[in-house]
Specification:
103 residues; alpha+beta; 2 helices; 34% strand; YaeB-like fold
Length: 103
């Protein structure tokens, strides 16, 4: 069985989000606790990187206000195919504004 470990700023960052986002993130974390390779439903934008064993997720409606939930897998030394720890963090990635071009 794997465990979830939270980045040191996780709870501070979580408090910056609205109540609905907190509930949605809580549901994802609950699912991750039960299934290490859980993939959120279609209402979320979800990416899994095979390169660095990471996942990124945000709400497709943009209701998380530029925040993404990220998690990284750490595998067992003795059983390389077994997830031992999932490190969870939040990252703020606001949409980049495009400069207005003069006419």
């Amino acid at each position: 069985m794997h465990t979830l470990e939270y980045d040191e700023s996780f709870y501070k960052d979580l408090s910056a989000l609205n109540k609905t986002a907190n509930v949605e993130i809580g549901q994802i974390l609950f699912s991750l606790q039960n299934e290490a390779f859980f993939e959120p439903s279609d209402q979320y934008l979800f990416e899994r990187s095979k390169v660095d064993q990471s996942c990124a997720c945000t709400h497709s409606s943009g209701s998380w206000g530029g925040w993404k939930l990220l998690w990284y897998y750490q595998y067992s030394t003795f059983l390389p195919s077994t997830v031992e720890v999932i490190i969870v963090m939040l990252a703020y990635e606001p949409v980049a504004l495009q400069p207005i071009k003069p006419r």
